[in-house]
Specification:
The protein folds into three domains: 62 residues, no CATH class; 257 residues, Type I PLP-dependent aspartate aminotransferase-like (Major domain) (Aspartate Aminotransferase, domain 2, 3-Layer(aba) Sandwich), CATH 3.40.640; 130 residues, Aspartate Aminotransferase, domain 1 (Alpha-Beta Complex), CATH 3.90.1150.10. Helix content is 36%, strand content 12%. It has 15 helices and 13 strands. Helix 9 links the parallel strand 4 and strand 5. The structure holds pyridoxal-5'-phosphate.
Length: 484
């Protein structure tokens, strides 16, 4: 490896030498309280601007990203993020506006929010939308707060339980608990779908809602969704759709038509904003008319040709994010939707499903497929056969890194042993899928012929196999200068 920048330091070398300031300057000690002033200069490496730039560019290449390699991380929708989205978000009229500017100066931004809400409403088949939440889990919280406010307004105070199937994304039970509901888990049936008998047993006058994802986190479509929604509604509960990932259903089926009362969509996932690493993200929450009065305020309204914020919403759950959400992400999502149009979005979902089934069939030769029926946009393999040879899913996931491929989501969903959850997305070519299948089948062969190689991988990454517990508990993230 090339020397790190810290070891390239040469005394007196500078990135930039600017001319001295030509106007009188206050001394630092007058501008910064003495307690905060350094007694000795920071021991920073002294390097040229070119070396500094190479340092940061090189660092940026040490991580895997969608722009450098295939990223089949199930449930995360690591698709290509079109660069035109960034160009639109960088338009001066969007980039330079200030959140405190008066409404008449930001009509374009309000129009974009309004139109994006309308597009989302059309895609999910629910009439009212907010774009305030900053992420999927934040959207779940917003949705459950709407449900809570709805029952409180009706004086129905005994509905304290939220039902969550065992396939649910971990954020679902966490959100329900955070909003103050009691979480009731129900088991899936042998086909990986909601078990109607288990659901009936869980439902009662204390049920506030059920949280579902369809397709569920096994990548399977809940065929009995209409019975599910009828049972929940008959018990007086509401039904929540976790649409964090909408990649399989756009233009094919709408949560509103499946009977859902409220849903959230991650705009950073299906609607193509780069994600992972902590954001920023954005989330749309859409709901039926009965929940609309409780939506966060302000909402964006249109009077004639003029857009405005509506703060006069007495039943609103209030504000859930500063200003109006992460606006730059809303611009990206709107660009993505406008660039694809109705037919294009429909094609996205068809291609996502096709890619997943193509890959699943190729891999089913040597890997156990957890549920054999056709999948939607993702599928789950089980590494049980390889485990019998002494090689775990964790080992195989690390081995993939040697081929420049990110690992799938592993050990989730929890009900599949040695799970590998694979989501190829529609933006990958058939050649990439073929290459990935060859790599996976090659690793399977290694588990028979050379299991130690898989067990000790990775070999080609910037750092080799780590003690993951220690790396998480005692991370060594800081460069410490040598004594001078
Ligand atoms: C990603 C995801 C979430 C959480 O979204 P965040 O933006 O990470 O908070 C929730 N549910 C499902 C099904 C997801 O895939």
């Amino acid at each position: 490896m090339e020397k790190l920048i810290y070891d390239k330091s040469t005394a007196g070398r500078r990135a930039q030498v600017l001319p001295r300031v030509g106007v009188p300057q206050k001394p630092l000690s007058e501008m910064i309280p003495a307690a905060y002033l350094r007694q000795v200069p920071a021991a920073l490496p002294e390097v040229s601007e070119l070396d500094l730039m190479r340092h940061f560019v090189r660092l940026s290449h040490l991580n895997h990203c969608i722009e450098t390699g295939f990223y089949p991380l199930g449930s995360c929708t690591m698709k290509y993020n079109p660069k035109v989205n960034d160009a639109m978000a960088a338009l001066e009229g969007f980039r330079e506006i200030h959140p405190h500017q008066p409404e008449d100066q930001v009509q374009g931004a309000l129009e974009l929010i309004y139109k994006l809400e309308q597009s989302i409403s059309a895609i999910v088949g629910l009439p009212a939308v907010t774009l305030q939440p900053a992420a999927g889990a934040h959207g779940e919280m917003t949705g459950l707060l709407l449900i809570k406010a709805y029952f409180e307004a009706k004086g129905d105070t005994k509905r304290k339980k939220v039902i969550v199937p065992d396939t649910a994304h971990g954020t679902n039970p966490a959100t329900a608990a955070m909003v103050g509901f009691e979480v009731v888990e129900i088991k899936s049936n042998e086909r990986g779908l909601v078990d109607l008998e288990a659901l009936k047993a869980a439902l009662g006058p204390d049920t506030a809602a059920i949280m579902l994802t369809n397709p569920n986190t096994l990548g399977l479509f809940e065929e009995e969704i209409m019975q599910v929604q009828q049972l929940v509604h008959a018990a007086g509960g509401l039904i929540y759709y976790d649409g964090a990932n909408l990649n399989a259903i756009m233009g094919l089926v709408r949560p509103g038509d499946m009977g859902f009362d409220v849903c959230h969509l991650n705009l950073h996932k299906t609607f193509s904003t780069p994600h992972g690493g902590g954001g920023p993200g954005a989330c749309a929450v859409a709901c039926r008319d009965i929940l609309e009065p409780f939506l966060p305020k302000p909402t964006v309204v249109k009077h004639g040709d003029t857009y405005a914020f509506d703060w006069d919403r007495p039943k609103s759950i209030g504000k859930i994010k500063g200003f109006y959400g992460n606006f730059g992400i809303l611009v990206r999502a709107y660009t993505y939707i406008a660039a694809h149009g109705r037919d294009g979005l429909c094609q996205v979902s068809r291609d996502a499903i096709l890619n997943a089934n193509y890959l699943k069939n190729k891999l089913s030769r040597n890997f156990v497929v957890a549920y054999p029926q056709n999948c939607m946009h993702e599928f789950v393999l089980s590494g049980v056969k390889q485990k019998e040879r002494g090689v775990s899913t964790a080992h195989m996931a690390k081995r993939l890194l040697d081929f420049g491929v990110h690992a799938p989501t592993v050990y989730f969903p929890l009900l599949v042993p040695e799970a590998m959850m694979i989501e190829p997305t529609e933006t990958e070519s058939m050649e990439t899928l073929d290459r990935f299948a060859d790599i996976m089948l090659g690793i399977d062969k290694e588990t028979i012929e050379d299991p130690d190689t898989v067990r000790n991988a990775p070999f080609k990454t910037p750092v080799g196999k780590l003690d993951e517990a220690m790396a998480a508990r005692k991370p060594n993230l800081r460069w410490t200068p040598s004594q001078q």
